[in-house]
Amino acid sequence: MISLFMDPLITFLQQRLEHPLPGKSSQLAMAPEPVTGNTRRRPMTPAGDARQSSVLILLFPNDHQKWELILTLRTPSINHGGQISLPGGRAESGERPLQTALREAREEIGIPSQDVTVIGQLSELYVSHSNNQVVPVVGYLPERPRFSINPAEVEEVFAIELDSLLHKKNLTVEDWNLRSHTYRVPYWDVHQVPLWGATAMILHELLDLYREFLDAS
């Protein structure tokens, strides 16, 4: 097992998340782009009535001492159903972002909040389709957790190696019809369902930090 308190990546992220982050420039690298000029680009500035939400990027070491992160496939009947997402949801009254992220992870996939060590936050991302301002919270566990899925929200929970997002063979770009317009959509082909949209945009910023770590190692 990796000694987490001495692990170089965790130490790097703890320090790096205290400094200015790549933000929108990194997020937009995985944003769907309109193919035609008369199609509106993705809004990145939150509306005045945007709802506050949080997601949890939860890292853990596998048996080969490689870092993995947890993803969920949302139940088809809910908002953004059938898509890959990070555990998370809307804030309840008076909650801080990390409280929301930990609560949602507990409710959705059964991760005890006290088991998670939170190390910081990535840049916020505005999701205009659902009018949510999303705060990505980063944390880790000492080993692969046991999951308890809430079927009302989650159809499947799975994990992917962080390194898999670096492989060019897993990155694909296609033209999709989204809400009656054609968009060029980048996505990671790491599951039977594409990893795209807001989740991919959030993870791309983490991936840029991971590249910084690898370059400095």
Overview of the molecule:
This protein is α+β, with helices and mostly antiparallel strands and 217 residues long. The chain is 21% helix and 31% strand. It has helices spanning 8-16, 24-27, 97-109, 197-216, and strands at 33-34, 51-61, 67-74, 84-85, 88-90, 117-121, 125-127, 132-140, 154-161, 171-178, 181-188. The strands form two sheets. Strands 2, 3, 4, 5, 6, 7, 8 and 9 form an eight-stranded mixed beta sheet that branches. The two termini are 20 Å apart.
List the helices and strands and how they pair.
Elements: H1 8-16, H2 24-27, E1 33-34, E2 51-61, E3 67-74, E4 84-85, E5 88-90, H3 97-109, E6 117-121, E7 125-127, E8 132-140, E9 154-161, E10 171-178, E11 181-188, H4 197-216
Brief descriptors of the model:
alpha+beta; globular; 4 helices; 217 residues
Order of helices and strands: HHEEEEEHEEEEEEH
Structural class by secondary-structure content: alpha+beta
Count of helical segments? 4
Q: Report mean pLDDT, rounded to a whole number.
A: 93
Parts with pLDDT < 50 across at least 5 consecutive residues: none
